[in-house]
Amino acid sequence: MPFSLWLSLAAICAMGAMSPGPSLALVLRHTLGGGRLPGMTAALFHALGVGFYALLTVWGLGALITRSPEVFQLITWCGAAYLAWLGIKALRAGREGDIRANAVATTSRQAAKEGVLVALGNPKLIIFFVALLSQFVTPDMSAMAKTIVVLTAMLIDGGWYVLVAVGLSHSRVLPWLQRHAHWVNRLTGVLLIALALRVVAGPITFS
Question: Which of 23, 185, 195 is nearest to 90 (CA)?
């Protein structure tokens, strides 16, 4: 896989992971309520759920391209529309998208359980992956390329939230995140709209 294409994939995955939402609130809650270890545990198990969805998406898209290219094209366009809608929603969020999380007593076991459930219980996650990976998956895509796509999504998601958990051990981090969440929303919105346009332009091929 060309390094430049991998960087595109990594950037998009990072954008999705950094966007404020229920996953970030989960890690914040367990970190503030139980300390660094429960927060990191929630992050890692959330990444496992993300990897599972990414794997299903890559397999499903590959089969769909081969059997029903017209249906795949329709799904691609619907995915682009969904990404554009998410982008517009993020741009309009403004300061209403501030990060809030209530600290509650927690354990690493509870964090692991909730980390997986939040990922697997979020149907929007697989829709996002369909829209995202539709531009990377091709009929002749190798097993190695598929593995790289899945691992990239999983490792970036886990890595980002682990950094959040570690960073929250310093008391100044959460207030900074809360103050700047609206800028994260705005940047995410612009990138999501750009991604939607890129999906419409056609798939990225691996060589």
Answer: 185
